[in-house]
Write a structure and sequence with these properties.
heterodimer; A: mainly alpha; Cytochrome Bc1 Complex, Chain D, domain 2; two-stranded antiparallel ribbon; 21 helices; 3 strands; B: alpha/beta; Rossmann fold; Dimethylsulfoxide Reductase, domain 2; seven-stranded mixed sheet
């Protein structure tokens, strides 16, 4: 909660003070990003006899889950592998092809280097690729021989807070401010005009007739003397304050918008949004259990074994991200936090066994006396996760989207139709109930979804 | 960082015995707050500058500040697994088949686990033998989380490592071996093929090993008799479902007689089917659970029982047995007539720990060729030998024992001659006890090998010949503990785990090619029938054995009869028994069982002497005090020079004159929480392991306060609570006669109360969707109480303690009412009530009702489980001012705890008195230091059910969490719910089939059929509440042949 408030204050403060400066700088950052797009390796690798573009495709399909170009993973780094082998070990392309097509065979033949490598990498057998043609292998090798891209210059936009979303708010406030100013000026002008007219009138000897107001009791006095009016006013005032007090108090304990700082900055935007990972790939227990479940770290490692750094969008991080400090390095550092927690040693590509469970801060807190079952809603009701959790795929920082109040639950139960299609459980009851209520489609409420004991026991 | 340097702040710290340093280390504030000094001095108090108004200001400010601060919600942390185990989905329960074998209780069970924590025990319906969990087995899961468990091995009171202990034990064993002294294993009955094999190997490794099996409550006589007749140390099995006539001589087979487990077969034959049901004649001294269920119960002294048994044999055999009174002759003549008529459909059982009696019973059943009598495949769940135990104690005292290893038994508590045993222990070089708690034996031995709970252990069982079961751990050891078998393997020098050992043993000698994994999943395995040639060989062998036995045992039978017939009766005889709730006292530290009311006396948290009214006259009294609590006198009981002082006395209707009863299992104090140290230790009177003792009893000073939850009065003929009839009437008359519908007068016309015209309420349409009903068959219900404990475990029902129970604040959602009748039969009660005439006089209602309150000397007993009746027209709902309790379309009466404000109007308006009020916060409260007050105990809490707070009404929910889960599972699979899928905790715990739960809108279901049965009735039907729980009229088989 605090985080959100801070961020709002932060952005509005900056947007007011740094409005003009910001506009200029953000233009300049865009131009920088354009300059840092990756250079395609195609032209430089033309003389290697293979097509590196084609090679990259084959590499990504077949090899990338275990190998990277510049980094040890399950298998060794493969940058310039052909040249390295030829220089260091005196092994040629024939050996390499044999290895790729059937590594186990090479190892079995007693080849010294093959066995060395095999043992170095924890005796993990490499998948045999007998279907790869010579041309394919040439292409892959051409890709591996491409020179490494120059490291990108990191764009750290310290102090360039705010973003485009901030700009909208700023301009609104400026317009309002300007309007207020204009109105103020108008009032002063009217006052001055009035004064001037009066002076002119005095100068002309015109007696400005003061109203009979002086004789009459002033309106406030009359009001104060009328007890009935006072009574009514007090009643209205009390009712009004009661209304506001009630509405203020009824939001106590409702944490809509709650977005605590988590021990690992996990971005749902990147995972569910950019990479389009299904919600239930990680939150798999939502299908069968009452809990959606925070995924165990071994689920993270399914992908993050090979995704060890954050590369970001092709054209680099957006201005907003940079403004919030979400640089590629920042995300990569968060991945390292995961490695530390799960006890993964990047160097040896092995688990150390020293794990440290992550203490996530729970965002959606239902009280203990309310029973909620995810599988009922997700699997049976076929309700999109986003219905309750909001646009998670856009959330950089996860927050509570819905109020999670009983009124909110009830309302949805009143409106939502039961998914009866192809579910034999509902066949009989749906037929009978819809006849009873005279409707085509039943809502959850008509199925008994408003009864106390369905959620409180 | 590791450094051996020692740092200190003052020299005093270098002295290890400096008390001030110790105080400083432990207490941040060394002195207590001087409250007395401050408040005690009036002058300083009056001179204080803070006046009353200031004080109020401070209070006001701090209250406001606290409530403002409370607006900020707490931060909850969520910790997922680092590596999630494959089979665990958070929020989904897993079930594992395992078995319990603690030496007293043997059963195949399922364990329900949530996120790896065992939280409930359920019946294993794949088991053919002992697949039903009784109350103690149901409660055993709480023992796993006992905060008084021994958490690691110790020696001489100091915690040591397992390595040290192993070296110590191995050294001690080798020393004993070298000195030529005996190595004794004093253990419980295991009935485990692998453990027996292991002990054989252990014997081979160390030579002079003496394995002594010790049952705290001995079945020695039955074992000896069976061994003499059939050549194997085992117990005959009885199939009560095949018997048409059961004659029991004090055999409490619905409770713990010979290991128990007979109730489901018994109940099966007890339900009238095509006009037939079994008949049960019971002769006994104490009012036992089995006696209470009998069709005819004859109170008799144990000595008279022996005479009667001898006479019965004589009658059946045609020989004449002299002795005994004419009363006995009359009873026996009647029984013999019935037995003869039933022939092979009759069975006779005996619960006297007397070898002659047991021999005669075996002979009678053989003579009858009883179909219910099974010696082919006997039971192995009692193996103890008192002769060997006595021999061991003598050897120990003589210094002939070099080492003694104790497992699963607590002899210092349960031996009548415990002092001899302790004396002997002093002369043994190495004494090790595998103990679970720091009990009496653990405190007496040199080293303690901390034992694992059965839910943390591997094991196997052969409870009955050819019927095997596997025990698997449902959780890793919570503490640094080890099971005895693993200890033995280590001490033998084997590096195998016990799991590997069992698996190897099973694959080589038991499974015979069947799948190990499948067996482990099922938990049980029955040996396929042995091949033909082997079988014939075996039978011929046994036949020849039997012939040989008969020749040799012809004399013993005759002498046995003679000895029995000549039994002289003592002045006052004591029969020691085990309570359904406490058994032999192994689980005395279990608050669920302490609070479990005894089915007969309805007393919790105590044991006591039961005495007949005639014997108590003028000496002992029971009376209820103003708050409803029961008070009683104390007595001193003396057996053979040993006196138990201040034993509370309960006057028990049905207790035979000249006898008293006292239950085992209480009076433990070592290693127990103070609240659990209840009752007196009856094992001190268990001389020569004989449960019948000659006793003298005298009054002691003082009054005992019982925690009794039901008065001792009778039903007074209020026939619509318990309805019962006899088999004859049931078979011949229309059901309107024996199960009449109550009627009210409408326009001077008698109208049934179920008619809509006399109803205050509009009927809702409940024909669509599910409509849950619970059926309770009073014929099948034995009153065993497994459902009570199952309900405790499933619904997080709190334990409130003895004082609160006494104040009638028990929290049991499900109670089993016990009713006596003042006449010998319930019909007698009804007749008497109907014949009352006027206020005064012989038939006056003033005196008459008073008389009817008192149960007769030998009353009939009926049990009735009562929980929330889930009325369709519920009186509680209309009086709730906040609509916290409301009805659902599915027939359940809902209770929204968070809505309840605690007016208790609902409880006042409930005609069934099933609502329970939380007078206190029972969790996290030091005043209620039971399992919900510590983190370990709280692990048993069911996460699907609320833990209620103070000031809230609660009641049976008809296990809505279970029905909702069943519905959800069906929805997820896209199918209809199958019959039998809907269960409640009580119905699934009921192994006797008395409770059936289901959806009456499913016309094919069993519950729909039961609802249409002629025996069906509702509790207090005339009130017009239309309950969703219905009962079945109890039918007694009074047909005398």
């Amino acid at each position: 909660m605090k985080q959100v408030l801070n961020r709002i204050q932060f952005s509005s403060f900056f947007s007011l003070s740094l409005l003009l400066v910001l506009q200029l700088i953000s233009f300049s950052t865009y131009s920088q990003e354009d300059a840092t797009t990756e250079v395609a390796p195609a032209e430089e690798a033309a003389d290697l006899g293979g097509d590196p573009v084609e090679g990259k495709k084959i590499f990504n399909v077949n090899c990338a889950s275990c190998h990277a170009l510049d980094r040890k993973m399950t298998g060794p780094a493969l940058r310039n592998v052909e040249a390295r082998l030829a220089e260091d070990e005196g092994l040629d392309k024939t050996w390499l092809s044999a290895w790729i097509r059937n590594s186990a065979g090479v190892i079995a033949s007693g080849d010294a280097y093959a066995n060395k490598i095999y043992n170095e990498y924890n005796q993990t057998a490499m998948t045999a690729f007998p279907t790869l043609s010579d041309i394919d292998i040439d292409n892959i090798l051409a890709y591996t021989a491409a020179p490494a891209p120059a490291p990108k210059t990191a764009v750290v936009a310290t102090g360039n807070g705010g973003g485009e979303s901030g700009n909208g708010g700023v301009s609104n406030e400026i317009i309002l401010g300007a309007l207020a100013l204009v109105f103020g000026l108008l009032v002063i002008m009217l006052f001055l005009v009035n004064n001037t007219l009066r002076k002119i009138a005095e100068a002309n000897g015109v007696q400005v007739v003061k109203d009979a107001a002086e004789k009459r009791t002033p309106i406030w006095k009359a009001f104060a003397q009328n007890q009935f009016l006072i009574f009514c006013t007090v009643i209205v005032f009390l009712l009004g304050s009661a209304y506001f007090a009630y509405s203020w108090m009824s939001q106590i304990g409702i944490d809509q918008g709650y977005a605590p700082v988590q021990p690992i900055h996990y971005s749902h935007r990147i995972h569910a949004g950019v990479n389009k990972i299904e919600c239930q790939y990680c939150h798999s227990s939502a299908r069968v259990s009452k809990h959606s479940g925070i995924p165990a770290l071994n689920v993270c490692m399914n992908c993050h074994k090979s995704i060890y750094e954050y590369k970001g969008p092709v054209d680099g991080p957006s201005a907003d991200d940079l403004a919030a400090g979400y640089t590629n390095e920042f995300y990569t550092k968060e991945i390292k936090k995961l490695y530390k927690a799960v006890g993964w040693d990047e160097e040896s590509q092995q688990y150390t066994g020293e794990s440290q469970p992550v203490e996530w801060v729970r965002i959606h807190n239902l009280p203990d006396f309310a029973y909620f079952n995810h599988s009922q809603h997700v699997t049976v009701g076929k309700i999109e996760c986003q219905t309750c959790h909001g646009p998670v795929e856009e959330m950089e920082v996860m927050y509570q989207y819905s109020p999670l109040t009983m009124g909110w639950c009830i309302n949805c139960h009143r409106e939502t139709e039961v998914q009866v299609a192809d579910n034999a459980y509902y066949e009989k009851i749906h037929e009978e109930l819809s006849k009873k209520y005279g409707v085509e489609k039943l809502t959850a409420a008509q199925m008994g979804g408003l009864e106390c004991g369905k959620c409180h026991y | 960082m590791a450094s051996n340097k020692k740092y200190w702040k003052s020299e005093a710290e270098l002295n290890p015995n400096d008390s001030i340093v110790e105080t400083l280390k432990q207490n941040e504030f060394t002195e207590q707050i001087p409250v007395d000094e401050f408040l005690g001095d009036k002058e300083t108090l009056s001179e204080s500058s803070t006046n009353r108004r200031d004080f109020l200001k401070y209070v006001g400010f701090s209250t406001a500040a606290a409530s403002l601060a409370a607006c900020e919600g707490p931060v909850h942390k969520s910790l997922p697994y680092v590596v999630q185990p494959e089979n665990i989905v958070p929020g989904v329960a897993n079930y594992y088949a395992t078995a319990i074998a603690d030496g007293f209780d043997f059963a195949s069970v399922l364990v329900k686990t949530r996120e790896g924590r065992p939280i409930k025990i359920e019946n294993n319906d794949r088991a053919k033998v002992n697949g039903g969990a009784n109350a103690r087995v149901n409660a055993s899961v709480l023992g796993l989380y006992d905060s008084t468990r021994i958490q690691g091995p110790t020696a001489n009171g100091e915690a040591i490592s397992w390595e040290d202990l192993d070296n110590r034990v191995k050294g001690g064993l080798t020393a004993a071996k070298n000195s030529g002294k005996q190595i004794a294993l004093l253990t419980q009955t295991y009935a485990s093929p692998s453990t027996h094999k292991l002990i054989e190997e252990f014997t081979a490794a160390y030579g002079n090993v003496n394995h002594v099996v010790y049952d705290a409550i001995s079945e020695d006589a039955a074992l000896n008799a069976f061994e003499a007749a059939y050549g194997e140390r085992a117990l005959a099995d009885y199939h009560f479902d095949k018997a048409e006539l059961i004659v029991s001589f004090a055999a409490d087979f619905l409770a713990d007689w010979q290991g128990g487990g007979y109730d489901s077969a018994y109940s099966k034959a007890k339900v009238p089917h095509h006009g037939k049901m079994s008949r049960h004649i019971h002769l006994e001294s104490n009012m036992s659970l089995t006696g209470a269920n009998a069709d005819r119960r004859v109170p008799m002294k144990p000595s008279e029982l022996k005479v009667a048994l001898a006479k019965l044999y004589g009658k059946l055999n045609g020989s004449n047995v002299a002795g005994g009174s004419s009363d006995i002759d009359a009873v026996v003549a009647q029984i013999a007539k019935e037995v003869k008529k039933a022939g092979s459909k009759a069975v006779v059982v005996c619960g006297l720990n007397d070898e002659n009696a047991q021999t005669v019973v075996l002979a009678i059943n053989k003579l009858l060729q009883s179909e219910a009598f099974d010696t082919e495949s006997p039971k192995y769940i009692r193996r103890g030998s008192t002769a060997k135990v006595n021999k061991l104690i003598a050897d120990m005292k003589a210094g002939r024992v070099g080492a003694v290893l104790i497992d699963g038994v607590n002899p210092v508590y349960s031996l009548p001659n415990a002092s001899d045993f302790v004396e002997g222990l002093g002369k043994v070089g190495l004494s090790v006890s595998c103990s679970f708690n720091n009990d009496e034996t653990a405190q007496a031995v040199g080293s303690i090998a901390a034992a694992s709970h059965f839910l943390e252990s591997w094991g196997d069982l052969e409870m009955k010949k050819g019927h095997f079961a596997l025990m698997q751990p449902a959780i890793r050891e919570l503490f640094d503990t080890r099971q005895f078998q693993s200890c033995l393997l280590t001490w033998m020098g084997s590096d195998k785990t016990y799991y590997e050992y069992i698996k190897e043993n099973w694959t080589t000698s038991i499974l015979n090619g069947a799948s190990w994994n499948k067996t482990l999943q099922d938990g049980v395995f029955s040996m396929p029938i042995v091949s033909n040639s082997e079988q014939t060989a075996a039978t011929t062998a046994s036949v020849s054995d039997e012939e040989a036995e008969e020749v040799s045992s012809a004399v013993p039978i005759a002498s046995a009869i003679r000895t029995l017939a000549n039994t002289t009766s003592g002045d006052m005889e004591l029969l020691l028994y085990s309570k359904v709730g406490m058994g032999d006292g192994k689980q005395a530290n279990n608050p669920w069982l302490q609070e479990f009311p005894d089915p007969i006396t309805r007393v919790s948290w105590d044991n006591y002497i039961t005495i007949s009214k005639a014997d108590a006259e003028g000496k002992f009294e029971n009376y209820n005090v103003a708050n409803g609590g029961l008070d009683g006198s104390y007595a001193n009981v003396t057996v053979d020079g040993t006196t138990l002082e201040n034993v509370p006395v309960i006057i028990q209707p049905g207790q035979a004159k000249g006898t008293i009863g006292l239950s085992f299992g209480y009076g433990k104090s070592a290693g127990m929480k103070e609240e659990m140290q209840t009752g007196v230790n009856a094992f001190q009177l268990y001389k020569n392991f004989n449960n019948v003792q000659s006793v003298s009893i005298s009054k002691a000073e003082g009054i005992h306060e019982f925690a009794c939850i039901q008065l001792h009065n009778t039903l007074m003929g209020r026939g619509d609570i318990i309805k019962e009839t006899t088999l004859e009437i049931f078979n011949t008359k229309d059901h309107h006669e024996w199960n009449p519908m109550p009627e009210v007068s409408l326009n001077h016309q008698e109208t049934p109360v179920t008619s809509p015209e006399v109803d205050l309420w509009q009927e809702f349409d409940r024909s669509i969707g599910h409509h849950f009903n619970l059926s309770i068959d009073l014929n099948a219900c034995t009153g065993c109480g497994a459902c009570v404990i199952a309900c405790h475990a499933e619904n997080n029902v709190p334990v409130v303690g003895k004082q609160e129970i006494r104040r009638s604040r028990d929290m049991h959602w499900l109670r089993i009412d016990r009713y006596y009748s003042s006449e010998d039969t319930f019909e007698g009660d009804n007749e008497k009530k109907d014949n009352l005439d006027g206020l005064w006089g012989d038939n006056g209602s003033l005196g008459g009702f008073g008389e009817m309150e008192n149960p007769s000397a030998n009353p009939q007993v009926a049990f009735q489980p009562v929980m929330c009746q889930h009325c369709n027209h519920a009186p509680c709902e209309t009086v709730c001012p906040v609509a916290a309790t409301a009805h659902s379309r599915q027939g359940q009466n809902h209770m929204a705890y968070n809505r309840c404000v605690g007016t208790r109007y609902c409880a006042n308006n409930c005609p069934y008195k099933v609502r329970r009020f939380n007078w206190f916060l029972y969790n996290n409260n030091d005043e209620f230091d039971y399992y919900m007050n510590n983190d370990l105990g709280k692990m048993v809490i069911n996460p699907d059910v609320n833990v209620r707070s103070r000031g809230v009404m609660e009641k049976c929910s008809m296990c809505i969490q279970m029905t909702q889960k069943t519905i959800l599972d069906a929805k997820r699979d896209g199918r209809q719910v199958k019959d039998g899928e809907f269960q409640t905790a009580c119905s699934s715990a009921c192994s006797s089939g008395a409770m059936v739960f289901g959806d009456i809108n499913d016309k094919e279901s069993k519950i729909a059929e039961l609802k249409e049965d002629d025996r069906m009735y509702h509790l207090l039907e005339h009130v017009g509440t239309k309950p969703n729980v219905f009962y079945h009229v109890k039918v007694r088989n009074t047909n005398e042949a």
